[in-house]
Write a structure and sequence with these properties.
With 434 residues, this protein is α+β, with helices and mostly antiparallel strands. It contains 14 helices and 7 strands. The chain has 3 domains: 66 residues; 101 residues, DNA polymerase, domain 1 (Orthogonal Bundle); 213 residues, Intergrase catalytic core (hpI Integrase, Chain A, Orthogonal Bundle), CATH 1.10.443. A hairpin with a 4-residue loop joins strand 1 and strand 2.
Length: 434
């Protein structure tokens, strides 16, 4: 079958002037055929293309002459040749990066910052008119976005935000915004790339513990979830709500036993999960569980190794869920669609248990189970570089946020953990928290 030819536009009625630096032409695929001009400026690469929106050649020629002289004056005075509102130039940048093969994750990062923050603050401002002070004011606004700015009204809808952005978040945002501005400079939208410095606020970048759970708190939560899915009154709940409860319960258990990020969990499919017999345990409910994280995740492809307890949670959920095919989502709604908003239900449960905030006043979220997993692995003596690899993060990041797990604590816990595991393997008992 012959391929259908795509309609292409050709330059027609071309007129070259200004020693070949300017071109007036019409497009073959346009019905009314207004005149277009293409200008090349000495000392600059590429072209500036404009539609004159005029149909009379003499008027179009006058428009092109004026544009050419204006561009020459800008070049002579070291001014940007192009003009564009921030949001429009940013959209052009995203389109260019997509064509050039920027990774899906990186594009997602740009869109996230651009949509929520940059587009709101800079929006329709002309990019070439922005100065150093504008970016300084932006970062002040950004630091208080969730406490005094537009984020105050969105706080109940966005569960994974931090009231004061971390040092790493601000560093990533500066690098991302800087990459866009360098592109804008390369394509003549701005004359110089401004220096981006985020101001520090009192307490904003202190090294702090991530909001997690103690072992007793986590056990209390899992006992509640167990009763919630099989205790008194559960039989009177309709099928859709039963499904939801089981999914939330197992989202908690799987998160706490795999260290997956919430985004990784809500995209997890059954074909990514595999098992292997654990020779260390005689208990048939303790198998090795491996999870293949794809390359489009936040930190690229990796193999996450779950705890031995995770096996029974995956098995139980697989038996319960009617959506257990290779390409089905592990955590899904009643109709099989991916679930990523279970944080709302979690907030209600933690509030009911008076566990929404840590003793330091930090709000617990879905991420807290990842923090719990990391803390537990460190306290049982798992080498920090191995924990970093399993969780898809850096040793430096773990050192900064889990500094309270000292070498002495890890050594002590490692010895105790080894003794308990040896006893468990010998007696074939189960310590699985259901």
């Amino acid at each position: 079958m012959a391929k259908k030819r795509t309609k292409t536009s050709k330059y027609i009625n071309k007129h070259v002037f200004k020693d070949g630096m300017a071109l007036l032409y019409q497009k073959s695929d346009q019905k009314k055929k207004p005149w277009w001009c293409r200008i090349r400026v000495p000392g600059h690469t590429g072209y500036v293309v404009r539609s004159t929106k005029l149909y009379n050649f003499a008027d179009a020629k006058a428009f092109a002459d004026k544009l050419y002289e204006g561009l020459r004056w800008k070049a002579q005075n070291d001014l940007p040749l192009k003009s564009g509102r921030f949001i429009k130039v940013f959209e052009e940048f995203l389109a260019a990066m997509e064509v050039q093969g920027m990774s899906i994750h990186r594009l997602r990062v740009f869109r996230s910052f651009g949509t929520r923050y940059w587009g709101v603050f800079f929006g329709q401002k002309h990019l070439e008119r922005l100065r150093q002070r504008d970016f300084e004011e932006y970062f002040l606004w950004r630091m208080s976005y969730w406490t005094e700015g537009p984020g105050v009204e969105l706080a109940d809808e966005v569960y994974n935000h931090a009231k004061i952005p971390s040092r790493n978040t601000m560093k990533m945002e500066r690098q991302t915004l800087g990459q866009f501005l360098k592109w804008a400079h390369r394509y003549d939208y701005i004359r110089v790339v401004p220096e981006l410095k985020a101001p520090k606020r009192d307490g904003a970048f202190k090294r702090e513990r991530r909001p997690s759970f103690t072992t007793k708190e986590f056990q209390r939560l899992t006992r509640y979830l167990s009763d919630w899915t099989k205790g008194e009154g559960y039989e009177n709940v309709n099928l859709q709500h039963k499904h939801q409860r089981m999914m939330v319960r197992h989202a908690v258990l799987i998160s706490a036993n795999t260290g997956l990020r919430p985004q990784e969990l809500h995209k997890l499919k059954w074909h990514q999960v595999s098992y292997a017999k654990n020779e260390r345990y005689k208990n048939p409910q303790k198998w090795n569980t491996m999870i293949q994280i794809p390359s489009d995740s936040k930190t690229g492809a990796r193999e996450a190794i779950a705890t031995a307890d995770a096996f029974i949670y995956f098995q139980r959920l697989n038996e319960f869920s009617p959506h257990n095919g290779p390409d089905d989502y592990v955590i899904c709604d009643y109709h099989g669609k991916s679930v990523h908003n279970w944080g709302r239900t979690l907030t209600k449960i933690l509030t009911e248990l008076d566990m929404l905030f840590t003793t330091e006043g930090k709000k617990r979220t879905r991420y807290s189970f990842r923090h719990y997993f990391i803390t537990q692995r460190l306290e049982t003596g798992v080498p920090i570089h191995l924990v970093a690899h399993i969780c898809g993060t850096s040793v430096g990041n773990i050192t900064r946020h889990y500094f309270h797990v000292t070498k002495e604590e890890r050594l002590k816990a490692s010895i105790l953990g080894y003794m308990e595991n040896a006893l468990d393997a010998a007696t074939d008992t189960t310590d699985t928290i259901s």
